[in-house]
Each structure stands twice: as structure tokens, then as C-alpha cells.
Design a protein that fits this description.
Elements: H1 7-21, H2 29-38, H3 46-61, H4 70-76, H5 79-82, H6 92-99, H7 105-111, H8 135-139, H9 143-148, H10 186-196, H11 211-218
Helix pairs in contact: 3-10, 6-7
The protein binds heme C (4 copies).
């Protein structure tokens, strides 16, 4: 009674497996890139997209927000750098280099820190310290934050308790810790994530309904990638 699988069934089984492995939502890399290049309304500036044009213009006009680079953050947040090598955001620029798109303006906004924003990434020659999506790629430019915490600098990093950041007079929510997308403003950080992880580039969040929140929660610890490991 043993029957051989008919070739037609075998082929359609094969196709079914393939389409399960690669659902239409996860387009092949090259196709996504071509779509991005053709997009009449591309995302060139994720920070502006997350804050809205009005909020962004107001923040930039204040002159308070400049990118300072990871070397500054490391002075006080050393523990965030221990696990940072595991964070794919560190290597987003290398991704472009690997396929020769590292000077394409359509790609740099989401693959570097602050491209298109004054004081942000300009080119590998001018701003080598801002390649990849660094701390400030998610939290926004850090100059005001560093200024607020200048007196907290310690050779021991964040190991010892420190006072909470002071709320500035006038109490605007967005500048509590000096960040445009600080931990005190999860709504804006989420908008940061989603302004880069658009429909086209949000593959990792589509797997389960809670995938986005799960990915977001990873960043609450200093070691993204080590789930819940503080
Ligand atoms: C709107 C933001 C955004 C823009 C613009 C963008 N990318 Fe990406 N890119 C992402 C995100 C987010 C990921 C990771 C998530 C994913 O793969 O869905 C990614 C992943 C990648 C990867 C990883 C490999 C892969 O295909 O999964 C490559 C390569 C890449 N992008 C190349 C490019 C190139 C080339 C351009 C310019 C034509 C570009 N990207 C423009 C956000 C962007
Ligand atoms: C991919 C985006 C992303 C990157 C890159 C990133 N962060 Fe965060 N960070 C987050 C999110 C999301 C939170 C959690 C906000 C919340 O509490 O909801 C967070 C929270 C924090 C906190 C507060 C943690 C606490 O215990 O309250 C600190 C400090 C921090 N990040 C520092 C850094 C430093 C330093 C870097 C660079 C080494 C960095 N972050 C890179 C997204 C990011
Ligand atoms: C001079 C020391 C210092 C430097 C430099 C510094 N921070 Fe902080 N940071 C602090 C202190 C102190 C806190 C408050 C911790 C607390 O409230 O528990 C803090 C809190 C944070 C938070 C959580 C609160 C919030 O406002 O979101 C984030 C995120 C953060 N830092 C990211 C960064 C990033 C990114 C950089 C680099 C641009 C950086 N820090 C540079 C001292 C510093
Ligand atoms: C400035 C743009 C940008 C922002 C903001 C950003 N990402 Fe990403 N993210 C990327 C790019 C580009 C990659 C591709 C890295 C690679 O594959 O080399 C990526 C990769 C990832 C990955 C792993 C790749 C995958 O497909 O599984 C996760 C998870 C992720 N991001 C989550 C987040 C979360 C959560 C936030 C917000 C807290 C965030 N990202 C903010 C650009 C961004």
C-alpha cells in the first residue's frame, strides 16, 4: 500500500514550506532596498518623525540638543557598554558598507546616529564617532542630559546611588532627564523605534502580537539580548 509522493504534491508541499518560512511580509532584502529607494515619501529623519515637525523644530531651535557620541555616555553608564556588543544596532552602518550603500542618504537616517539632524552623523570622515545606531540614536541628542548630570560624573560608573534628575523650572516633561526620548518618556521612545522600524523595516516585530513590546522591554536592561538579565 506504500505510495510514492506524486511530484505535484511534493512540489506544492515544498512551496508551502517555503512560504511559511518566508511569509510575504518579510520581503527579500534586495526587494526592500529597491522599494526604499523608490519611496516617494522616505524616512530621512527618524527623530523628526518621532517628535513631529513642531516638537522637533522647537527642540532644535532651543540650541540645547547636540549629539555628543558614545564616549561621553560611557563615562557614567559603563554597565550599558558591557553587553552592547550584542546589540544589532551597533552594526547597522556595517550593514550598509557590506552592500555598498554607506553614502546613500536614503539609508543613513535609520542606520546611523542623527543623520540629517544638526550635529548628527554626516559622513564617515567627518563624524566617525556617530556611525551605527548608538545610545543617542534611540534617546536623542545627549548634550542637555550630560549638562544636567555633570556633577554626577564618577569613576565608578552608575554602581552607586545618585539623586534622580531634577525637573527643570517650567517642568516640560520632555526635558526631565535632558533627553528628547528619555526613559521618562516611553511614548516618544516607542515612536523612535517605530519611525525606523516601519512597515518595511519592522520584520522582527511581526512574529507575534507582543513582539514589539518584548523587543522594547529588552532595552530596559543594560544588556540588550540578555533577556531580563540585569
Ligand atoms: C526607515 C528606516 C530605514 C531606512 C530608510 C533603511 N533601513 Fe535598512 N533597516 C532598518 C531596520 C529597522 C532594519 C532591521 C529590521 C528589519 O530587518 O526589518 C534594517 C535592516 C537592514 C539590513 C539588514 C539585512 C536585511 O535585509 O534584513 C540591510 C542590509 C539594510 N537594512 C539596508 C538598507 C539600505 C541599503 C537602505 C537604503 C536604501 C536602508 N536599509 C534604509 C531601517 C531602515
Ligand atoms: C534601540 C534603542 C536604544 C538604544 C540603542 C539604547 N537605549 Fe537606553 N533605553 C531604551 C529603552 C526603550 C529604554 C527603556 C525606557 C522605559 O523605561 O520604558 C532605555 C532605558 C535606558 C536607561 C534607563 C534604565 C533604567 O534602569 O531606568 C538608561 C540609563 C539607558 N537606556 C542608557 C543607554 C545607554 C548608555 C545606551 C548606549 C550604550 C543606550 N541606552 C542605548 C532604548 C535604547
Ligand atoms: C556625567 C554623567 C552622565 C553622563 C555623561 C551621561 N549620563 Fe545618563 N544619567 C546620569 C545620571 C546620574 C542619571 C540618573 C540616574 C537615575 O536617575 O537613576 C542618568 C540617567 C540616564 C537615563 C535614564 C533617564 C532618562 O532621562 O531617560 C538615560 C536613558 C541615560 N542616562 C542615557 C545616557 C546617554 C545616552 C548618555 C550619552 C549621551 C548619557 N546618559 C550620559 C549620568 C550621566
Ligand atoms: C535610528 C533607527 C533605529 C531606531 C530608533 C531603532 N532601531 Fe532597531 N534597528 C535599526 C536597524 C537599522 C536595525 C538592523 C540591524 C541589523 O540587522 O544589522 C535594527 C535592529 C533591531 C532589532 C534586531 C533585528 C531584528 O530584525 O530582529 C531589534 C529587536 C530592534 N532593532 C528593536 C528596536 C527597538 C525596540 C527600538 C526602540 C527602543 C529600536 N529598535 C529603535 C534601526 C533602529
Amino acid at each position: 500500500m506504500k505510495k510514492k509522493l506524486s511530484p505535484i504534491i511534493a512540489v506544492s508541499l515544498f512551496l508551502a514550506v517555503i512560504s511559511l518560512l518566508f511569509p510575504p511580509s518579510s520581503m527579500a532584502g534586495e526587494e526592500r532596498i529597491q522599494q526604499e529607494l523608490r519611496d516617494p515619501n522616505p524616512t530621512l529623519n527618524p527623530l523628526q518623525k518621532a517628535l513631529g515637525k513642531k516638537g522637533y523644530d522647537r527642540a532644535m531651535a532651543s540650541g540645547k540638543y547636540r549629539y555628543v557620541g558614545n564616549t561621553k555616555c560611557r563615562l557614567c553608564h559603563r554597565e550599558f557598554f558591557v553587553g552592547r556588543k550584542k546589540d544589532p544596532h551597533v552594526y547597522t552602518y556595517e550593514r550598509l558598507v557590506a552592500i555598498g550603500y554607506e553614502t546613500n542618504k536614503r539609508c543613513l537616517g535609520c542606520h546611523t546616529t542623527g543623520f540629517g539632524v544638526p550635529t548628527g552623523y554626516e559622513s564617515f570622515e567627518k563624524t566617525p564617532k556617530l556611525v551605527g545606531v548608538q545610545c543617542e540614536g534611540c534617546h536623542g541628542p545627549g548634550s542637555e542630559h550630560v549638562r544636567l548630570h555633570r556633577d554626577d560624573a564618577s569613576p565608578f560608573g552608575m554602581g552607586i546611588p545618585r539623586p534622580r534628575p531634577q525637573k527643570p523650572k517650567g517642568g516640560k516633561k520632555e526635558i526631565k532627564g535632558g533627553f528628547l526620548a528619555g526613559a521618562d518618556n516611553p511614548r516618544i521612545i516607542k515612536r523612535m523605534c517605530l519611525s525606523c522600524h516601519t512597515k518595511r523595516w519592522g520584520r522582527s516585530f511581526k512574529r507575534t502580537p507582543h513582539a514589539f513590546q518584548a523587543a522594547y522591554d529588552l532595552y530596559k536592561t543594560p544588556l540588550p539580548g540578555d533577556e531580563g538579565d540585569q
